[in-house]
Amino acid sequence: MLLSVFREKYQGEPIVVNAPGRINLLGEHLDYNLGQVMPAAIDKRIQFVISANGTDYFSITAFDLNQSQTFKINELDPGKGWLTYLKGVVQGIKNRGKEVGGVNCVFGGDIPGGAGLSSSAALCCGFAFSLNEIFDLNLTRKEIAEIAQFAEHEFAGVKCGIMDQYASLFSEPDHLLLLDCRSMEHQLIPFRQEIFSILLVDSKVKHSLADSAYNDRRKSCEEGVKILNRRYGQVNSLRDVMQKQLGEIRAEMDEITFSRCEYVLQEMERVRRGAEFLVNDDLEAFGQLMYASHQGLSQRYEVSCVETDYLVDLAKDFGLIGSRMMGGGFGGCTINLVARDQQSAFSEFVYSQYKNRFGIEPEIYPVKTARGVHRVIE
Ligand code: GLA
Description:
- There is one protein chain.
- By secondary structure, the protein is α+β, with helices and mostly antiparallel strands.
- It has 2 domains: 2-191 and 371-376, Ribosomal Protein S5, domain 2 (2-Layer Sandwich); 196-367, GHMP kinase, C-terminal domain (Alpha-Beta Plaits, 2-Layer Sandwich).
- Helices cover 43% and strands 24% of the residues.
- It is built from 11 helices and 13 strands.
- The strands form 3 sheets. A 6-stranded mixed beta sheet has the order 5-4-6-3-1-13, sandwiched between helices. Strands 10-11-9-12 form a 4-stranded antiparallel beta sheet.
- The model has no long low-confidence stretch (mean pLDDT 96).
- Bound molecules: alpha-D-galactopyranose.
């Protein structure tokens, strides 16, 4: 489909690249605190059909939005909208002393925007990966992740961690990534979806404070690190402290900073235990950690909202094995572990209850773990 759009519009022999969105099973808001996280790419993706055009211009068509825009290689003011991310990627590549030329590109896909499935990471990673292929830049996947993160930080203004980019680039089907954001090493944990499947329930709300509140949470954690470091020394991140140490200096922190740091340390512990439960196939115990994670995100870290709290309550009422809000928060999706034979009953239940309560139709996406960014043979 995108290929024929490309052929109608542009010259040149393109390559085709798929870049997936991601879920995260456990470990929310831990990446920028250098903890461990448990994401996986999913079978929803942005596809790029793209080729070099021999000029200094980037001609880009966002197929789903029915928009085409152009920018010049040495005019990389961030601007607004989806082009911001692509310009950020080009700037990030240039900053590494690599040379790229102009391209023609059509992209589009099925990752719902604003749902917390990291469509922006997919956009940046897929575009950077494509440029790497086309211009033989010799960038590693790790470097591509960093370039994509640079685009978010410096062009879009969101001081995100590295989880989304890693998940989009390094995932494998039937596995979760256990990514250690301090050592930047990851393991693949087998995660089969034969008995339990993953259902995302999209609350369809995105509260407008999301980006600034995200940056604000990050600042609180940095503030906590400063105070902890003053007392204990050698504390570069919350990964370097134990819950006991945090407790000992409670009086030196304001309540908000304390409870945010406390959430982070508790969530780090949950990931440690959760990884063991998964390896031992104890999904029930894992599901309990998901509920506990949600509780912490909602009460201690304060990044949930009434809509996603309600969705998790519904999951609990229904008797699901595990459920929690996912991603940065303030709306977006909950992630739910659902026994295969309960999938349609739960979907109907959650749909009608949520619609009754908020007058909004939630969207429900069954998702499977998938392979990270790759070239497609068409
Ligand atoms: C967003 C960010 C990630 C991560 C999550 C919360 O998705 O982009 O880096 O911090 O929120 O876990």
